[in-house]
Amino acid sequence: MGPGYDTRDHWQHAAIAINRLSPSDIHRLHASVSGTIVKVARHGNKFMGSQFAAIHSRLDIMIENDRIVMEFDSREFGTVVQVMIGASQVGSVVALVKEGQHVKKGDEVAVFAYGGSIMVTLFGVGAISFDDDL
Fold this sequence. Notes:
Blueprint: E1 15-21, E2 28-30, E3 35-43, H1 52-55, H2 61-64, E4 67-74, E5 78-86, E6 93-95, E7 102-103, E8 108-112, E9 117-123
Antiparallel strand pairs: 1-9, 2-8, 3-4, 3-7, 4-5, 5-9, 6-8
């Protein structure tokens, strides 16, 4: 996620949803939960591909690619983090909200320039449980 997050503690057993967007998908990103934006931070500086082979290679696109880490304080789910990761053919990841702003689930919070990209959503331990078929 980036500096300031101790992944050995709160996030070690987090529920994680990874959504890959292909170049033909819409690239407007929406809040996964209602809540207050606690933190918006930019990390990374590369734009490598997000295809299956790239994700499962020695390259770590989740850490090296340009990304925005957006932390939400949700009454329903506690702390939720969305990581919007740019990939090949993406010129930028642009946050549309600011720290301290309240958003509702489904509100637009960021956009990608055209191209492939990934959004990762992390929920703290016990906040949600995925259906067995996922």
